[in-house]
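Why should sequence recovery work at all? Because a backbone constrains its sequence more than one might expect. Tight turns favour small or flexible residues, buried strands favour hydrophobic ones, and helices have their own preferences. The token representation captures these environments compactly. In the example below, the structure is given first.
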């Protein structure tokens, strides 16, 4: 237990890219667009951020470059779907494969190079608190941005009129259009916003966590995890963030178990994946609905809020103005 507590700062730090990518994808999917290029976007953006920061000598330039790459990838998916009327899933899947290979090819001259690395920015007084201080208040700027993003995304979606319009174009685009919303224009906008956040997630790997570029990038596969976390979190920013931090904690716990048990390493590393798959199966099997029905009436809203996972009804569905 003591080892797990001592690793809490690392858990929060390593989970931040998943938080950024998963919340970004939540915003995009709430508008009705599925950006399946997430994994490729993260890898290509991580390279762009590393190279831009390495050549310019500026972390900010690296972050901006990564965000632009993520935005461009998301807009490609949106353009293929909203304008060309192609299948979002197929286009995103092809793009993610292309982007991963492209990043490995373009990054061949930077293999083994060490680049700039984001420094920690302790919050005065708060960083001195026991346990909480090192965990939450002695991190880099993108970790703090992740904390802010979670709250801001929830507030925007559920407490503002533009957020209501965002959810409307993902739930009932015809009704949103009748109320004056420009459905496809909003979908383009929120695809770009989500893509920029995915790009920042990629930058965090090469500008804060690893600070180098490897022949086999360690962030490959993280986009698929982020997509699963969006479903796990029921397209709600708070639950999505919880899923990201939970996954980070499980990975850390798996690493600690490797040091203290004789269980096969492959089996231990598979535990977080198996738990994620089990959760997704329970959510999609109707288990939650049955649990709600047998729960006393006064507790049903709590169970529904915590466990219910309903995708936007118009997710992946094209809208055409009559």
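From this structural description, the recovered sequence reads:
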């Amino acid at each position: 237990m003591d080892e797990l507590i001592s690793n809490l700062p690392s858990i929060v730090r390593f989970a931040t890219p998943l938080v950024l990518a998963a919340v970004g994808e939540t915003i995009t999917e709430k508008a009705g667009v599925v950006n399946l290029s997430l994994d490729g976007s993260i890898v290509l953006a991580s390279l762009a951020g590393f190279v831009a920061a390495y050549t310019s000598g500026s972390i900010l330039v690296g972050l901006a470059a990564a965000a632009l790459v993520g935005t461009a990838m998301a807009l490609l998916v949106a353009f293929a779907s909203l304008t060309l009327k192609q299948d979002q899933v197929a286009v995103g899947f092809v793009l993610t494969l292309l982007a991963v290979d492209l990043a490995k090819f373009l990054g061949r001259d930077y293999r083994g190079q060490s680049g700039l690395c984001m420094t920690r920015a302790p919050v005065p007084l708060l960083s001195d608190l026991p346990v909480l201080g090192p965990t939450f208040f002695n991190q880099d700027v993108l970790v703090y941005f992740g904390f802010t993003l979670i709250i801001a995304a929830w507030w925007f979606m559920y407490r503002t009129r533009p957020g209501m319009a965002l959810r409307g174009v993902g739930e009932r685009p015809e009704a949103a259009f009748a109320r004056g919303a420009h459905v496809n224009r909003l979908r383009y906008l929120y695809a770009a916003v989500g893509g920029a956040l995915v790009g920042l997630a990629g930058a965090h790997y090469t500008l804060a966590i690893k600070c180098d570029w490897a022949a086999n990038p360690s962030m490959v596969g993280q986009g698929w995890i982020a997509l699963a976390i969006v479903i796990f979190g029921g397209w709600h920013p708070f639950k999505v963030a919880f899923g990201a931090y939970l996954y980070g904690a499980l990975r850390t716990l798996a690493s600690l178990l490797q040091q203290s048990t004789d269980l096969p390493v492959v089996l231990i590393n598979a535990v977080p994946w198996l738990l994620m798959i089990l959760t997704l199966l329970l959510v999609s099997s109707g288990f939650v609905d049955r649990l709600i029905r047998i729960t006393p009436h006064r507790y049903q809203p709590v169970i529904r809020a915590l466990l219910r996972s309903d995708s936007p009804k118009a997710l992946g569905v094209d809208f055409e103005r009559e």
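A few observations help interpret the result. Residues 2-260 form a domain with the ABC transporter involved in vitamin B12 uptake, BtuC fold (CATH 1.10.3470).
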